[in-house]
Design goal:
There is one protein chain. The protein is an alpha+beta fold and about 650 residues long. The chain is about 25% helix and about 30% strand. The chain is built from 12 helices and 37 strands. Strands 27, 30, 33, 34, 35, 36 and 37 form a 7-stranded mixed sheet that branches. The chain has a 4-stranded antiparallel sheet with strand order 1-8-6-3. The chain has a 4-stranded antiparallel sheet with strand order 5-4-2-7, with no helix packed on it. Strand 31 and strand 32 form a beta hairpin. Helix 10 packs across helix 11 and helix 10 crosses helix 12. The chain is elongated. The protein starts with a strand and ends in a 7-residue tail after the last helix.
């Protein structure tokens, strides 16, 4: 009977992942691949399987804790190690035969990969397919990216193997259980043979311990998921170096990921057999290691787990040393036709709104790294700002909030932001940094419009139409954009041109239970007030019910943010880039107005127009506001 440690395996580079369920208890007997804990990230939940069979001796984690790759989960008692030692000489020929036959019994099988549990969501859009037919993927590699109205999520591969067939494409909508792809996996009887060899180890444990004091051992490339001809991008040691068990000795890179190969034991490097640029496969010689005395050979499973836990350390240090300087060289002059980047980099680019085809890659084999992405954002901020903005962080180009201990002042709660709240915050910061914004204020006399609207209110309600001031505002803004096309543009990334749009889609900011969302009403300039009222009502209802799809929130030309009856006399709305204008609407109020003879009560609506000063001049904004006021003040003009 021997004890082994099971650790957190490769979880796609995620750190501080929350444990939401522990599926076993001390004393339980578990099998290989049986789920032991369930982790949850902001993208998905994942079951962590046991890498070996045995009896649970102790559990090192609990629900609610956060873990990272390589952290200890539990200690397991593995049966059959010592008990089989006395019988080994009698049964010696049989294990040799089975060991010889093991490699010959390998076979391939096809596994169908389906959409896992995605929180009950249905008809979720596929926004990215990360693999192609013929690709080799590792268990846990991202294969597709889905996006709901609340969040985007990467779907990982449940197996290691080769992509035989892909059943979906970008733009498809899928639900739980839908087919994604077919994966050809390799299965063999090597694992049972390994167990038999392990049972034989105690038989020669004494000689092994004796030779460990000064023996030279060959360190070879371990199991790397069946990949062949993998490039060596870094050799981390040299002859004469002392290494500790688990230290990185080389770094390999496939077209899917980079991986560090750790030293299986502590000792001194006698010779290195490979160099940067070489191509290696499983079993190739890496180096000769003079093993230190007294070190015990770790079990295969923990060693493999340590191999997957190493990559999170060294790249950080090297990234800090080699972070690219902030200059315009981080931006490509022309979009690249082929973009090579990992899932984590692509997710960060989506959150920051960066077009990866414009980012200059500096990673091995033309891959875009997170540092390249950060350099691009810094260069973009530097380009539009006349001077460096104070308080800008050196990491991502966005301001950071300093850590503070508020609990010393009184009782507090720490509440995690929802995904949509985090995305909104990032977009607001980016827009505030990138857009040179100006806000103009005015008041529109809507006395006649309100009288007209209230007169039709009862009739419209019988038709199922809720006639609020919003449809009139949308219609008026749409006509103002047709009359003032400078507001219906988007700036190009090259900074030298802009897109003039010939359609008018109006975004409506909605305070939904999930956070601030902006559904888009299309072709508002071609619709009547009644049509707009119906469609806007449907969009707002979908937003409040959290039923919006990504397509419902795309393609906007201009946004209206109305505080309505909430109150306030004015505010400065932030331009929703790549749009160049947004109208803030506050609560209408009755005010005295001079008509040339006397003061009379009039219903006045406060308006706040924010615009991107790179695309819109003050004169353009003044004409837009004057035209808008004329439409709202005389409802008859809306029909022209």
């Amino acid at each position: 009977m021997s004890t082994e440690i099971i650790r957190v395996p490769d979880i796609g580079g995620a750190t501080d992942v929350e444990i939401i369920e522990i599926s076993i208890a001390v004393g339980d007997t578990i099998e290989v691949d049986q789920s032991i804990i369930v982790l949850e990230t902001d993208k998905a939940s994942m079951d962590v399987p046991s890498s070996m069979a045995g009896k649970v001796k102790s559990i090192s984690v609990k629900e609610g804790e956060k873990v990272s790759e390589g952290d200890e989960i539990l200690i397991i008692e593995v049966e059959g190690a010592e008990e089989s030692a006395p019988e080994a000489p009698v049964e010696d020929p049989a294990p040799e035969k089975s060991a010889e036959k093991a490699p010959a019994s390998s076979s391939s099988s096809e596994e169908k990969v389906s959409v896992p549990d995605i929180g009950g969501a249905t008809d979720v859009e596929v926004i990215e397919v990360c693999v192609a037919e013929g690709d080799m993927v590792e268990e846990g590699d991202s294969i597709i990216v889905l996006e709901t109205d609340k969040a985007s999520m990467d779907i990982p591969s449940p197996f290691t193997g080769k992509i035989a067939k892909i059943s979906i494409k970008v733009g498809d909508t899928v639900s739980e259980g839908a087919d994604i792809l077919v994966l050809t996996t390799e299965s063999s009887s090597v694992a049972p043979a390994a167990k038999e060899e392990k049972a034989e180890e105690p038989k020669s444990s004494a000689p092994a311990a004796a030779s460990a004091s000064g023996g030279v051992e060959s360190v070879k490339v371990p199991d790397i998921g069946g990949a062949e001809g993998v490039e060596v991008i870094e050799v981390a040691v040299a002859a004469g170096d002392k290494v500790q068990e688990g230290d990185s000795i080389i770094v390999l890179e496939t077209d899917k990921a980079s991986m560090e190969i750790p030293a299986p034991k502590s000792g001194t490097v006698k010779s290195v057999s490979i160099k940067v640029g070489d191509k290696v496969s499983e079993g190739d010689l890496v180096l000769e290691l003079e093993v230190e005395g007294g070190s015990e050979v770790p079990a295969p499973a923990p060693a493999a787990e340590k191999a997957t836990s190493a990559p999170t350390e060294k790249p950080k240090a090297s990234a800090e040393k080699s972070a690219p300087a902030v200059d315009q060289s981080a931006v490509l002059s022309e979009p690249s036709k082929k973009v090579h980047a990992g899932p984590a980099v692509r997710m960060l680019a989506r959150e920051l709104g960066v077009d990866l085809s414009l980012v200059r890659p500096t990673g091995p084999r033309g891959r875009i790294t997170k540092e390249d992405l950060h350099a691009y954002v810094k260069a973009a901020v530097q380009k539009v700002a006349s001077a460096p903005a104070g308080g800008v962080a050196t990491g991502s180009g966005l301001p950071t909030v300093p850590d503070q201990d508020f609990s010393k002042f009184g009782e507090v709660d720490v509440v995690k932001m929802s995904k949509i709240q985090r995305l909104t915050a990032q977009n607001m910061v980016r827009n505030a940094l990138v857009v040179p914004q100006v806000t103009q204020f005015d008041k529109a006399d809507i006395s006649d419009l309100e009288a007209f609207r209230k007169g039709l209110k009862g009739e419209m309600e019988k038709q199922g139409v809720k006639l609020t001031p919003l449809p009139f505002l949308i219609k008026a803004v749409a006509q103002a954009m047709v009359a003032n096309p400078s507001f219906n543009v988007s700036l190009m990334a090259d900074g030298e041109s802009y897109v003039q749009k010939h359609y008018v889609h109006i975004g409506i900011a909605v305070d939904s239970p999930a956070g601030l969302v902006v559904p888009v009403l299309r072709d508002a300039d071609k619709k009547s007030v009644v049509q707009i009222a119906k469609e806007a009502g449907e969009l707002i209802k979908k937003a409040l019910d959290k039923q919006l799809k990504p397509a419902d929130m795309q393609g906007g030309c201009f946004t209206i943010s109305s505080l309505g009856a909430i109150g306030g006399t004015g505010f400065t709305p932030i331009v929703n880039c790549p749009e160049v204008g947004i109208l803030g609407v506050s609560k209408a109020d009755v005010e005295p107005r001079w008509n040339g003879k006397e003061f009379e009560p009039r219903t006045m609506l406060p308006l706040c127009l924010s615009y991107d000063h790179r695309a819109v001049n003050g004169g353009d904004a003044g004409r837009f506001m004057t035209f808008l006021n004329s439409l709202l003040s005389d409802v008859r003009r809306l029909s022209l």
